[in-house]
Amino acid sequence: MFTQDQITAIAALPANAYKFKAHIDALLDLYKWVRKQWTTRAIKALCHEHTLDLRRIDDRARFGWYAAQELAKALPPAHH
Which of 27, 72, 75, 77 could form a disulfide with 61 if both were Cys (CB 3.0 to 4.6 A apart)? Predict the structure, then answer.
């Protein structure tokens, strides 16, 4: 399970985060988690929207980043 803070942090990564090993593990972990949480239809829609091929590891990382952005939009505002 990912916390609101973790999702927000992943969503805030730069667009090319999938190129940096420091971020790959977080992106791939989120990818795996989302695959269990979302419907097949939602996964296919995100892949189609961003032209992702989930057979490629870099596209799985991109999927994690795009999914984090979608999840972050749905989160309530953070209270600090």
Answer: 27
